[in-house]
Amino acid sequence: MSEYTAIGRSIPRIDADSKANGKTRYAFDLSLPNMLYAKVVRAQCPRARIVKIDVSKARALAGVRAVISGKDFPATLYGPFLKDEPPLARDCVRYYGEPIVAVAALDEETAAKAVQSIAIEYEELPSVLDPEKALAQSTVLVHDAVEGYRVTDPCIRRYGNVCLHTRLHRGEVRQGFSKADYIFEDTFDIPMIHQMYLEPHVAVAEVDFSGKVTVWTSAQQPFVVRSVLGEIFDLPLGQIRIISPPVGGGFGGKEEVLLEPICVLLARLTNRPVKMALTLEEELVAGTPRPATKVFLRTGVTRDGYITARQARLVYDAGAYAKHAAGETCFGALTIAGPYRIPNIDVEGLCVYTNKVPSGCFRGYGCSQSTFASESQLDLVARRLGIDPLELRLRNAVEPGDCEVTGQPMLSVAFKETLQKAAEVTDWHHRERQRRANHGFGIACAYKGISAGASSAVVKLNEDGTATVLTGVSDIGTGTSTGLVAIAAESLGVDVRTVTLVASDTESTPYDLGSVASRVLHDAGNAVRLAGSDARRQLIALAAERLGANPDDLVIAGGLVSHRARPGVALSVSEIASLAHVRIGGPIVGRGSYLAEVGRTRNEANMENFPLSPMPTYGFATQIVEVIVDDATGQVRVSRAVSAHDAGRVVNPLLVQAQIEGGMVMGISLALAEELIVQDGRVANSNLADYKVLTAADTPRIEAFTVEGSDPSGPYDAKGMGELPVLPTAAAIANALDDAIGVRLRALPMTPERVWMGIRGTKGEGGTMQRNST
Amino acid sequence: MDGEVTVSLIVNGEAAQIRVRPQKTLLDAIRLDLALTGTKKCCDTGDCGACTILLDRVPVASCLILAVEADCHEVTTIEGLNGLEGGPLLQRSFATSGAIQCGYCTPGMLLSAWSLLHERKSPTEADVRQALAGNLCRCTGYLRIVDAVISAAAALAGEDE
In terms of Cα–Cα distance, which of A190, A195, A285 is closest to A683? Predict the structure, then answer.
């Protein structure tokens, strides 16, 4: 029996009934009196000087209320790492689809008509679309002077078309390779994909008589939106209020500021609320997709399968602006080691500008790319050395106390347990008995750092003893609000049904970095736990005074504060909550703030130009899949999918299972179907008929498991779960495909066409294994 | 406004009249003119299923139909699902079995699922997956949605006995 009453229970989402009845109001559903609708004119070439913008026809159109271009904004550029982007293009365009002019009109139809009437004269310039070319040549610079941009961390190294260049290293790779019996070299290509949340980007801005700005936006980080708007418009933060209603999916794609500055300026100029929503075509052409990535990987192993050295070079294609692709590069470089002991490692991460749609962040923050490369190559190693791929991973697996290359120790590690769990569930060691024709088994693992930045929370007790949690974090669908309510109830000692939650309003809720980095349950959860404990202390103190008891003798359980030793000496939480109003003149208010303790063991000598903090804790996962390949068509079908996770203590089994299932199906879709195809600088498949996302009919049941884990850094020993389930899937499928028919694909997605070409032609190109002769 | 036409509908059991321009989609009319925002807009090209409603009890993508085409027809949106036989039970099944995450696909999913159960009392998993293949969900991986439909079907069959 658990000692807890709310933690560890499968409580259905607190918003489930509202959503099942169509009553939840998303930002997309918001409509204000007198509201105008905005649309933008987008660049029709990848790189050009803007010679002339003619908006006269648009201005003359009935129903148009404002037309703005880049020059109507203050000159401030913004971005999460490099401050390199204007809200609307100024003087030049850097990608096909870049917004240049914005229009506000009485309705969407009129705004669209106005956009079509605007004539832009370009002087087209040569563009650079391939990151390797962008690295090699300096004749086409996407940005003239990247060195001159402001940065969020002075260590960010940038030059030419490179917006971030980092290096992580430990030990001596040359020595490490000399100890290897075999050296493997492989190159992997991971495409640009769209996060494909179903609620497109949308924002509504209103400016009141005093100039105060309010924005409702479908965003993962309302406090970041606030600081960016403050920067662009030079406004004090108290003059800006950002509200994120429940978000219709994010997956990293709603961490960038896209529409908010445009809506704010139009609202200011027209004195009316302004709404702007992206169409799905705009999302695909000019959202913030996962950056395309090329990974070169060189790994030395002994004949027993122990890794002695690794060298890696990861090139992330940022597109036209650095955005979060810069951060993806850092985390990709960090996690290319995988959850393995690699004594000698040397990794270079490059984030490169090209004249393409700027990439941003995607679930896993760069790790979906590094994991695909690392886990695919490990499988090749196992295959060539004749070692079972699961056994190879066990031999190299990290253990508690091992350090990342940054020097950060990994304290809570139940990685091997996930390998064992997945093996046990699938009867891995007897899989040959189950093998059929064109049938393959694949395994892959992943780890991901959890936590980032600051979280704070308030728990206030209402007069009747019910509690309200204030948190700055938005629930983007993962169910974190339900988890936070459980944590508040547990820490207060009250029934979970008596707790409600107010979320993500920068004016009424305290600061929180937002719904990113698998951090909400961990970081915001810690803050809520501290706030709940603070309120609980106050409750007990007041009860002790009233009862004439020592506070240490009082306990709270089941909504009752009672004396340990004296039966019958008790007050209900509601009595004390009410009493507070006459005794101290107001409610009991608990406060909590949390910032992960990291960096004390940071090994600066190993980290060159690395602008991110290490993480306080890590999650681990193992996935095993079975595939059936149709060798006539190249179609790959995943027939079994198992995912085993170290999630620390599980706060809500139902919601954790749901995260695992959803993440792995997303991983299957990315592995087999998804790719944004760029032709001549333009995204060519900008609709859901051409950008295929797998459906209920195309995907298998997921078998989700958690292993017994415990993380002292998390609230009630919990870890975050948002990102991990998507990370190992593509490699697991690639490994299963090789197992089934001997075709090794080092490029994603594994479309029937690619698989068929693999069957017919060159099997396993793009890599080598050499016996070490040094 | 010039060029507007009158459209008469039965919406969730009640008669309604709206004035719309002929090019307006039924989806926009539902969301803007009828102010029923439970019906979701995403792709606007009939590919994602988020805007699924029932037109004369048949599931359709409301973004592919003009409001004028719905004249004299019966429209059921998510706000009216609890008035249909089996609707509330199906909604509860979604809510309690973890079939809902961000919830943006949920209204369309529920209406597609209701329509399946209306036609087939005890669908197989394959039936359910096929019936929901026009409704994308990015959060759940579909499993709990499929299971919620199957368990609702079983519960409804139990009620009938």
Answer: A285
Cβ contact, residue pair B104, A26, below 8 Å: yes
Contact B50 A13 (CB under 8 A): no
| Among candidates B45, B79, B140 on the partner chain, residue whose Cβ is nearest the Cβ of A661 | B140
Q: Which domains does chain B possess?
A: 5-80 (3.10.20.30), 84-160 (1.10.150.120)
Residues of A in contact with B144 (CB under 8 A): 658, 661
Taking the model in full, what pTM does it have?
0.97
Which among A248, A657, A663 has CB closest to B104? A248
Q: How many CB atoms lie under 10 A from the CB of residue A747?
A: 18
pLDDT above 70: residue B71: yes
H or E element at residue A170: strand A162-170
Q: Residue B106 and residue A19: Cβ atoms within 8 Å?
A: yes
Assess: ipTM above 0.90: yes
Alpha-helix residue ranges (DSSP H) falling in A78-182: 108-117, 131-136, 173-178
Percent with pLDDT over 70 in chain A: 98
Please tell me which of the candidates B41, B45, B141 has its beta carbon nearest to residue A661.
Answer: B141
Residue A767 has pLDDT above 80, yes or no: no
Closest B-chain CA to A283: B43
Asked if A655 lies within 8 A of B38 by C-beta distance, the reply is no
Asked if residue A599 has pLDDT above 70, the reply is no
- Is residue A227 pLDDT above 90, yes or no? yes
Q: If we measure between CA atoms, which residue out of A612, A660, A627 comes closest to residue A731? A: A627
List domains and CATH numbers for chain A.
35-125+201-277 (3.90.1170.50), 293-451+602-771 (3.30.365.10), 452-595 (3.30.365.10)
Backbone angles phi, psi at A85, to 5 degrees: -120, 135
Per-residue model confidence as pLDDT tens digits over A17-66? 999 999 999 999 999 999 999 999 999 999 999 999 999 999 999 999 99
